[in-house]
Amino acid sequence: MATRLSSKEHYSDLLDKYDTWLFDCDGVLWSGDKLIDGATEVLQLLRHHKKSVLFVTNNATKSRVNYKKKFDSLGVEAHVDEIYGSAYAAAVYISSVMKMPKDKKVYVIGMAGLEEELREEGISYIGGTDPEDNTLASFSLANWTPDPAVGAVLCGLDTSVNYTKLSKAFNYILRNDGCVFLATNEDSTYPTAEGLLPGAGAISAPLRYALGRDPVAIGKPKGTMLDCIKAKHDFDPKRTIMVGDRLNTDIEFGKAGGLATLLVLTGITKESELSGPNASPTVPDYVTNSIGDLRALSS
To answer: Pick the catalytic residue: 19, 26, 285, 293?
Structure first.
């Protein structure tokens, strides 16, 4: 059963136990473009106590450099090397784990941030924001010449997804020998200030159904994301805590990596999922209403 945090003593115990704090962003630090009350004060308090603070997000629409601009606009201290997005992790996976040859390309279903991270890793790509693929015109194989150099299809959140992109991606995986099917993450939904929208997992779903196979997923809850962080930051998993708002991504990610987990109720997961007949089988170590609750430490 999860420990419900409610007193200064509870939060002090957390501060003593954990040196590295991993934070999801949407639903934890902010909702859309609105800060969660107390988020900045809590981050400052953790830094004051010499804690390592890292930000781990499945958002693949922005590069780390552009994602930092969101932190800056909201007045949240963050450094580029503290930010780990699924776009960055996907690029590192292709270059360092797959070790894709330089003469190969990635076909992208995704947005500019994903392309930026691929460029930073020296990976050639096609598709994505290319105007040729961002069309509502009918697609026909008779009018298309596939690129034999495509060695992977990478699918992220794409708010301009269309039949042309899906058809090209499908055929590259089907036709090009050894073409790898990748997904930045499999989030079913994407939170905005006005409500939920379909997430990156919903974008790759038509391909999964058409191909009859699942992609290699890179973002939370997969361990690939944690491996990416470990490659850059030295930390002890036993003294590390993952703070998130989603049981099936953030909390499962932490548990799979041997980290402690803290669920906040300011995002996707609701109280009803923690107990009763419809309770989730995924149980966090700790639960608190909001990240702002940790301000009790400064009182």
So the answer is: 19
Burial of 277 (0-12, 13-18, 19+ CB in 10 A): exposed
Q: What is the pTM of this model?
A: 0.87
Q: Write out pLDDT tens, residues 94-131.
A: 998 899 999 999 999 999 999 999 999 999 999 999 99
CB hemisphere CA count around 292 (13 angstroms): 11
Q: How far apart are CA 212 and CA 25, in angstroms?
A: 32
pLDDT band per the 50, 70, 90 thresholds, residue 282: very high
How far is Cα 141 from Cα 120, in angstroms, rounded to an integer? 32
Around 143, how many Cα atoms within 13 Å sit in the side-chain half-sphere?
Answer: 8
Token readout for 203 is: 């974008």
Q: Which CA distances in Å does 222 have to 69, 225, 230?
A: 26, 6, 14
Token output for 167: 């058809």
- Report the distance separating Cα 295 and Cα 299, nearest Å: 7
- Are the C-beta atoms of residues 78 and 203 closer than 8 Å to each other? no
Q: Is 142 exposed, middle or buried (0-12, 13-18, 19+ CB in 10 A)?
A: exposed
Judge whether 72 counts as a catalytic residue: no
pLDDT in tens, 229-278: 888 889 999 999 999 999 999 999 999 999 999 999 999 999 889 988 88
